[in-house]
């Protein structure tokens, strides 16, 4: 445990020196605050809280940003150490390969969590101070979005480590990271939509469609935030659809955790068998 925390602390301090935390925090804060201030017009007509409106918009935009940030943090976690010639040196200490993977993962998740909580939290606090009509339910929805955003980022950090142990060169890992981002964030839903149009409802039923949604952590995150809370589901209009599809928030949360555990576990197993 001490080895994991030591490695995690090293990764966190390096991120602070490289200003990853500051840059990510500012970016997320500006994004969230802009959506909260500029996207508040619908609240007067639908009766929803200002922050609930922001949750709907931010849930969609976070899908594009957080996975990319997470993959850029983690894609060279192992292959980068090998490329710099420091991997063998690290493993010469009483540190196992599992310690290295878990320590780096914890450090990078800590970086992402700090940036996300600080960035979104600052914007939520500013909105609460500026607008006196902020509903506690909106604050709860915003807090749920922030926590699930950390889980989304953690899942892509785990995927980034899996890529990092599968390849031998940083350039290859970077290319695969971009490809993974494109597949999960853009291509997956387009292919699924095209398949539904071509199928005409003959083979892809509601049950299969729900399973296919769960194969993409970005879709799980989107569904969780657009159907899991009353305010966000009212604005998005997906409350009834989510209930009809059987998307229980607890089940979606469990799937998000599985998208962290499974890739990270696979990365550890591959790294254990990898020849250095």
Can you describe this structure?
- The chain contains 14 helices and no strands.
- The chain is mainly α.
- The protein has one domain.
- Helix 2 packs antiparallel against helix 4, helix 8 runs antiparallel to helix 11 and helix 8 runs parallel beside helix 14.
- The two termini are 24 Å apart.
Q: What would the keywords be for this entry?
A:
276 residues, mainly alpha, 14 helices
Cα-atom radius of gyration? 20 Å
Q: Find the count of extended strands (DSSP E, 2+ residues).
A: 0
Helix content: over 70%
How many domains? Answer: 1
| N→C terminal distance | 24 Å
Shape annotation:
globular
Instruction: Describe the main β-sheet briefly.
Output: none
Give the helices and strands as they follow along the chain.
HHHHHHHHHHHHHH
Low-confidence stretches: 41-47, 239-244
SS field, number of helical segments: 14
Could you tell me the mean pLDDT? 82
Going by helix content, strand content and strand pairing, the class is mainly alpha
Strand content: under 5%
Would you spell out the secondary-structure blueprint of this structure?
Blueprint: H1 2-17, H2 20-38, H3 43-46, H4 50-74, H5 79-84, H6 87-92, H7 97-130, H8 136-166, H9 170-199, H10 206-214, H11 217-227, H12 230-236, H13 239-244, H14 249-273
Helix pairs in contact: 1-7, 2-4, 2-7, 4-7, 4-8, 4-9, 4-11, 4-12, 7-8, 7-14, 8-9, 8-11, 8-14, 11-14
């Amino acid at each position: 445990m001490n080895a994991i925390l030591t490695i995690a602390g090293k990764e966190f301090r390096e991120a602070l020196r490289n200003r990853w935390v500051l840059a990510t925090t500012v970016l997320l804060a500006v994004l969230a605050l802009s959506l909260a201030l500029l996207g508040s017009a619908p609240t007067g007509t639908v009766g929803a809280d200002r922050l609930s409106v922001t949750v709907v918009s931010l849930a969609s935009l976070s899908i594009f940003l957080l996975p990319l940030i997470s993959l850029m943090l983690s894609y060279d976690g192992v292959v980068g150490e090998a490329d710099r010639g420091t991997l063998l040196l690290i493993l010469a200490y009483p540190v196992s390969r599992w310690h290295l993977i878990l320590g780096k993962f914890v450090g990078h998740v800590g970086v992402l969590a700090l940036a996300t909580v600080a960035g979104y939290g600052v914007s939520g606090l500013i909105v609460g101070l500026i607008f006196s009509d902020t509903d506690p339910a909106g604050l709860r929805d915003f807090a749920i979005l922030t926590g699930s955003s950390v889980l989304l980022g953690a899942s892509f950090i785990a995927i980034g480590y899996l890529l990092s142990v599968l390849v031998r060169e940083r350039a290859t890992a970077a290319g695969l990271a971009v490809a993974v981002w494109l597949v999960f964030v853009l291509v997956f839903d387009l292919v699924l939509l095209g398949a539904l149009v071509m199928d005409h409802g003959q083979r892809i039923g509601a049950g299969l469609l729900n399973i296919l949604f769960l194969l993409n952590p970005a879709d799980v995150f989107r569904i969780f935030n657009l159907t899991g809370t009353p305010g966000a589901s009212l604005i998005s209009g997906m409350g009834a659809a989510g209930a009809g599809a059987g998307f229980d928030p607890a089940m979606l949360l469990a799937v998000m955790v599985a998208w962290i555990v499974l890739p990270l576990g696979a990365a550890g197993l591959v790294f254990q068998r990898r020849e250095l």
